[in-house]
Specification:
The protein has one helix and ten strands. By secondary structure, it is mostly beta strands.
């Protein structure tokens, strides 16, 4: 991992390939991260009686992630990729790096997005990400 300041939350978007590569979407300037233990509600397509009943997942650990972030980016391509996720409603793997805690890998949907610029070679963005499931991995920072 390249050097970074220890106080910055980092958001990286996966490319969806089998050996997934993650790319930072930009420099996060401010963020609100909500991690809670509320169950995630899911429906199943294989519901035999067709009622599409809502079930709650019962897994250990954090169950719901919501992230709102504001930042800047020198390259607009990562922001374009996030916008494409928003426009298509795609579920995409994101890595959320929390300094002095670790890295969560989570399938997320982009709930809202805006960006401005570029101005003087830098674009600013606001993005809201919502977990579509519990984190698939967590790697503690050492």
């Amino acid at each position: 991992m390249a050097a970074r300041r220890g106080s910055e939350l980092i958001i990286r978007r996966g490319d969806g390939q089998p050996s997934e590569t993650f790319t930072a979407i930009g420099a996060v300037q401010s963020s609100t991260l909500d991690i809670n233990g509320n169950p995630i509600e899911v429906t199943t397509g294989d519901d035999v009686d067709g009622n599409n009943e809502i079930w709650q997942t019962f897994i250990t650990g954090p169950k719901n992630f919501s992230l709102q972030a504001r930042g800047i980016a020198k390259s607009t391509q990562p922001l374009q990729n996030v916008y494409d996720d928003f426009a298509t409603g795609a579920l995409t793997n994101y890595e959320i790096v929390i300094p002095q805690l670790g890295t969560f890998t989570i399938s997320m949907i982009v709930g809202a997005m805006s960006f401005e610029g570029p101005y003087d070679g830098v674009a600013s963005f606001d993005v809201t990400l919502q977990a579509a499931a519990a984190p698939t991995t967590f790697v503690a920072e050492v």
